[in-house]
Amino acid sequence: MTLPDLQSKTVLLGVTGSISAYKACEIARLFVKAGADVHIVMTPSAERFVGSLTFEALTRNPVLTERSESWSGTLNHIDTGKKADIFIIAPATANTLNKLSKGIADNILLQTALAFDKTMIVAPAANTRMLANHYTQGSIKMLRVNDIEVVDPQSKRLACNEEGMGALAEAEEIFWRGARALLRDDFWSQRRVVVTGGGTREKIDDIRYLSNYSSGKMGKALATALFLRGADVCYITTKETDNLPSEVYTINVESAEEMMEFTVDAVRVAKKGIVTKASMNTPEAPQVVRKTPYLFMAAAVADYRPKFPQKGKLKKETLDEEWCLELVQTSDILSSLNKEGLKTVAFKAETDAEKGEVNAYKLLETKNVDAVCYNHIADSKSFGSDIHSVVFITKEGRRIALSPTDKLSLSLHILDEARRLERE
């Protein structure tokens, strides 16, 4: 899993007395791996499950506990929060949720939380009935009203041997939510974006298909980058979607026809904007946020498909020594789309080093797109690499060569260039 660069960010991770406290070690490790400066505050109950030395070894920072708090330096519940960009409490017990919503500060973690005035995220973990109790549910609602983000728990067999909702969300999901809060961009926030990825598969029979070497990694990286920037993402792909943040809405397709159908529908929905939720503490009605939607067409859509796809499996003995497969053209998605009120970024891979970029410029006009990401590939072995580069070309004449880097970092750079399309 490629992680975003968080080297300039400081994360405060709060750990409470849940059996899932050990999972906080993995959350801390992910943020450290992404380059963030990670600090830990633990309740006395949390220390019964995981020792503070474990977190010190992971983060290379002293851990704030009731025993380690010192006012001769900065290891205290006031200064620790001042240097953090975000405060994530994971796991957050039912006891912590209820106290946090009421402003109670009777332990070192809650004191730190009460003094913290920036972005806060809580990830509940508790017995199903404790979590479902109306007091706890009311507390969770109150936390949301006060702009504290809640990462919902998952349903599975719990440590108490009961089955139900209450298990801590996966460490990766908590990491993605924290990274999104750190990297959110007002331009992309509450903006609907459609991304396509992967190579389509055109059925020959029930066993065989025509396809290409596209790995789908670029589309997946774009969907992740847009999530991190705060966009409402619809990702239409032919590939697996593992390791994607769960809030990325994904649609799995196979053929060019399916890709066409779902892309048209997703763009239509995107143009409607986003309906904001009414605030619980104001009488205002929900409003529609209408930001110009974007389409990033990173999928490698087949130009042709078999004219007569067969049911079952074609047998070699029923075919001649030479088998001529009759093909017909597929519909061109970019040419067919209604682009009114839509910003469109196409992707074009070319093997011809001399004419490839010329063809990319032609695509701007022939398919009426706002920008194209062009990359030269040597051969089929170039597909599926983790390092990538593109030349970002716009209809208005901008040409930006983006240096080779991992595809997630490259996608974030592409978004920085794509946002300027609104002003062109």
Question: What would the keywords be for this entry?
Answer:
single chain; 424 residues; alpha/beta; Rossmann fold; 2 domains; eight-stranded mixed β-sheet; five-stranded parallel β-sheet; 21 strands; elongated
Short summary:
This protein has an eight-stranded mixed sheet with strand order 12-11-8-15-18-19-20-21, sandwiched between helices. It has a five-stranded parallel sheet with strand order 2-1-3-4-5, with helices on both faces. It has a two-stranded antiparallel sheet with strand order 6-7.
Helix content: 25-40%
Overall pLDDT metric: 93
Low-confidence stretches at least 5 residues in length (pLDDT < 50)?
none
Q: Which strand order do you get reading across the main beta sheet?
A: 12-11-8-15-18-19-20-21
What share of the residues does DSSP label as strand, in percent?
A: 15-25%
- Structural class label: alpha/beta
Rg of Cα set: 25 Å
Provide the CATH topology of the largest domain: Rossmann fold
Distance between the termini: 35 Å
Please work out how many helical segments DSSP would assign: 13
